[in-house]
């Protein structure tokens, strides 16, 4: 169906960057610290707001390099302070901010520290953000952090001045806004009680179905409030209350410290206790140190030392920082089923024991017939019931690798329920049931039915035009069945193992007989019509069926691998990684799903989906192309020299989701960052695929992978109570030495607290 007058339905909100800036590879806006654990924005005029997220399991704080930001309780949809989007669920330009003002008591001159200071620096760390600057003779720093357990953010304001008296005021805009699966505006009617130094507000009128208490306090201050309204999306009115805390201060050469707490809770007593606790500098410093210690443990538990220091810093610090966020708050906290499974999988290399409740929670949303929802909400019973075939495929990947990391086979026998049913089964039963459902839901060609969609959301809904079957989904089912078969072999359950391997063999035969196009695998079919075929005028080739064919080993001829690599290089590769498909669909249509309504070069229509690119890194590793894997992984990282700050536009310390493709005028620009499964795949790509250190059922599997320019590298991994220090070194001698003794296996295990391993290859 063609409609030349149709408007594209997906907003991309390009950031306005001049052509000169777009081409200026020398222009940067900051730098990483020498240890790679911080990034300082030195020029506040970044192409767009550069953000940092500070979260614990129940509270989230967002800070922008321009002083913007907001806070949320339990979910990014339950906002305590101001943020709403005029476009969609993706995190866009922040329209709320923290305000810190100093007003000269004599002249009346006013300084808005975070807004007006042009030389202000913004330093991002795991767990904290720091603003520093000087304006009007006043030096200041403002540090923000979220404690490990309490539902608040703390501000540590440090000021030195010029022996003048000022009125110090801090303010924020309370919102009490619940954007839960759809935009919902509050009516702005808040109950507020002012106290000496702080104010308590509750949402009884603004949110009648959920009462939340908020606190905003600074010791010795006088609170005031002012209501205002704004028009937002669909002409809805959004109501806010600005809360301001003011006190008189005399600033001199000696630094003065002022503490501010902004938080929320379920009852008044809990919320008031936050104010009492965090007006103590001793408590604030203790909690800040606890956050720093937690992150040091996370960084040290699984780390590397590499010739490529940039890759080293991302594996040790920045990918973990992003995965820590996404597992807890997913895609802005509307939980995509595939997303939570991949985010928890990535978190196995951050804090492996912590993922179990997240996995069990997701499994409880499975239907009794084995289907899984597309999305669900943490705190309600609301589901996105669209039947995407890939949702259950990610479960075995996460569960099997969880067992390998922790040795906790007991999770398989954990009984949990199904959605909207009294039935209960074990985790193992859930996994087998979901794979049975897929096996029994196949088309006439033997491939698994796509139903409403698979991983490639852009092809959603193509089943309305005929029998839609997915080649990629069948490849993925082949892969996860092999993983489960390996697990059942370990358990000694040979009948289940044989059943799974038999089905995998059937999938392999079907894929190779039906989906091979001569030089690559097609992506899907609508009846007998292929998608991603040389016969197609647009969208001739799709990346995922090539990467997953190589990664899973489903191909039946080595010559096919050579042809796939040649096709990827010819049709898909760009300086920023391979495009998802090519050529992009130029005409508006619907038969190929949502992607045909997207502008050429954006999202799934010829964009560079970094999640899919991270699949390709793993494919390179699986096929032994480690130099290619390293090169592609370097290109995915946001600060690769081929993609400058003003071209990419986004933060250089956060991996993006999708770059504009070669058929777009802003080729290389990142649409959005932070919320993506890309960092989960990259952290596995790095430590396991590239560096060759992977947890296995019986121990730690060590597989040296030769990279041309690397003579030596080091990996430290805490695994089942033992800290392994593993040195890889090129040598004429070959072997793995465990505490000085040569091992006859590449699977090692130790009961010691520490174990030193030398790998000569």
> Terminal Cα separation, in Å?
58 Å
| Major sheet size, sense and barrel closure | 10 strands, antiparallel
CATH class of the largest domain: Mainly Alpha
**Total beta strands:** 41
Work out the count of structural domains: 4
Beta-strand percent range: 25-35%
Global mean pLDDT: 93
Anisotropy-based shape: globular
Keywords:
single chain; alpha+beta; Glycosyltransferase; 4 domains; 17 helices; 28% helix
Compose a concise summary of this entry.
By secondary structure, this protein is α+β, with helices and mostly antiparallel strands.
Describe the structure.
The chain has 761 residues and is α+β, with helices and mostly antiparallel strands. It folds into four domains: 1-32 and 609-691, no CATH class; 39-297, Distorted Sandwich (Beta-galactosidase, Chain A, domain 5); 303-608, Glycosyltransferase, CATH 1.50.10; 695-760, Maltose phosphorylase, domain 3 (Sandwich), CATH 2.60.420.10. It has 17 helices and 41 strands. It has a ten-stranded antiparallel sheet. Strands 6, 7, 8, 13, 17 and 18 form a six-stranded antiparallel sheet that branches. A six-stranded mixed sheet has the order 20-36-37-41-38-39. β28 (524-526) and β29 form a beta hairpin. α5 crosses α6 (337-347), α5 (309-329) crosses α17 (678-690) and α10 runs antiparallel to α11. The protein starts with 18 loop residues before the first helix and ends with a strand.
């Amino acid at each position: 169906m063609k409609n030349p007058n149709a408007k594209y339905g997906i907003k991309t909100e390009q950031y306005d960057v001049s052509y000169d800036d777009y081409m200026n590879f020398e222009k940067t806006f900051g730098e990483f610290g020498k240890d790679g654990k911080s990034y300082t924005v030195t020029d506040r005029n970044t192409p767009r707001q550069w953000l940092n997220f500070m979260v614990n399991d129940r509270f989230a704080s967002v800070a922008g390099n321009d002083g913007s930001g907001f806070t949320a309780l339990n979910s990014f949809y339950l906002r305590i302070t101001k943020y709403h989007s005029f476009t969609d669920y993706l995190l866009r330009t922040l329209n709320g901010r923290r305000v810190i003002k100093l007003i000269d008591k004599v002249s009346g001159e006013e300084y808005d520290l975070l807004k007006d200071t042009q030389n202000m620096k913004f330093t991002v760390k795991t767990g904290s953000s720091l603003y520093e600057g000087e304006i009007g003779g006043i030096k200041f720093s403002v540090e923000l952090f979220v404690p490990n357990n309490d539902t608040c953010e703390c501000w540590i304001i440090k000021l030195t001045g010029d022996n003048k008296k000022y009125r110090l005021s801090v303010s924020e805009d309370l919102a009490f806004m619940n954007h839960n699966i759809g935009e919902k505006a509050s009516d702005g009617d808040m109950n507020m009680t002012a106290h000496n130094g702080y104010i308590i507000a509750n949402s009884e009128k603004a949110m009648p179905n959920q009462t939340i208490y908020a606190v905003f306090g600074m010791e010795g201050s006088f609170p005031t409030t002012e209501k205002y309204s704004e028009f937002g999306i669909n002409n809805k009115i959004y109501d806010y209350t600005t809360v301001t805390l003011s006190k008189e201060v005399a600033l001199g050469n000696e630094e003065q410290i002022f503490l501010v707490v902004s938080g929320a809770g379920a009852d008044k007593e809990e919320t008031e206790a936050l104010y009492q606790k965090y007006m103590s500098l001793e408590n604030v410093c203790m909690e800040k140190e606890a956050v720093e210690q937690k992150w040091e443990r996370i960084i040290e538990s699984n780390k590397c030392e590499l010739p490529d220091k940039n890759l080293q810093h991302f594996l040790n610090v920045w990918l973990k920082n992003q995965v820590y966020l996404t597992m807890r708050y997913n895609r802005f906290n509307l939980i995509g089923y595939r997303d939570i499974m991949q985010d928890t999988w990535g978190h196995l290399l951050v804090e492996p024991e912590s993922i179990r409740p997240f996995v069990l929670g997701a499994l409880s949303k499975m239907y009794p017939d084995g289907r899984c929802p597309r999305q669900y909400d943490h705190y309600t019973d609301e589901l996105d019931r669209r039947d995407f075939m890939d949702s259950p495929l990610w479960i075995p990947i996460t569960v099997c690798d969880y067992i390998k990391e922790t040795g906790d086979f007991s999770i398989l026998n954990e009984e949990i329920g199904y959605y909207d049913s009294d039935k209960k089964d074990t985790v193992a039963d859930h996994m087998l049931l979901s794979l049975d459902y897929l096996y029994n839901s196949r088309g006439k060609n033997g491939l698994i039915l796509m139903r409403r969609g698979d991983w490639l959301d852009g092809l959603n809904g193509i089943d309305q035009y005929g029998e839609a079957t997915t080649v990629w989904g069948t490849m993925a089912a082949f892969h996860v069945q092999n993983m489960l078969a390996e697990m059942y072999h370990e358990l000694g359950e040979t009948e289940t193992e044989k059943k799974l391997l038999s089905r995998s063999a059937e999938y392999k035969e079907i894929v190779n007989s039906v989906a091979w196009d001569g030089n690559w695998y097609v992506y899907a079919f609508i009846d007998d019509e292929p998608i991603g075929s040389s016969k197609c005028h647009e969208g001739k080739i799709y990346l995922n069926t090539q990467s997953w064919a190589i990664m899973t080993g489903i191909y039946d001829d080595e010559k096919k691998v050579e042809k796939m690599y040649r096709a990827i290089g010819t049709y898909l590769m760009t300086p920023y990684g391979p495009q998802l498909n090519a050529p992009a669909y130029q005409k508006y249509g619907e038969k190929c799903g949502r992607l045909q309504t997207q502008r050429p070069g954006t999202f799934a229509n010829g964009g560079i989906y970094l999640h899919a690119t991270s699949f390709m890194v793993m494919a390179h590793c699986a096929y032994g192309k480690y130099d290619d894997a390293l090169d592609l992984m370097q290109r995915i990282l946001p600060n690769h020299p081929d993609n400058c700050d003003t071209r990419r536009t986004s933060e250089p310390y956060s991996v993006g989701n999708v770059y504009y493709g070669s058929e777009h005028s802003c080729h290389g620009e990142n649409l959005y960052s932070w919320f993506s499964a890309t960092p989960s795949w990259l952290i596995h790509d790095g430590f396991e695929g590239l560096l060759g250190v992977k947890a296995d059922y019986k121990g730690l599997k060590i597989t040296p992978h030769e990279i041309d320019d690397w003579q030596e590298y080091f990996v430290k991994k805490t695994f089942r109570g033992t800290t392994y220090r593993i040195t890889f070194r090129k040598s004429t001698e070959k072997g793995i030495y465990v505490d000085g003794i040569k091992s006859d296996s590449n699977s090692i295990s130790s009961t010691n607290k520490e174990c030193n391993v030398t790998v000569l290859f």
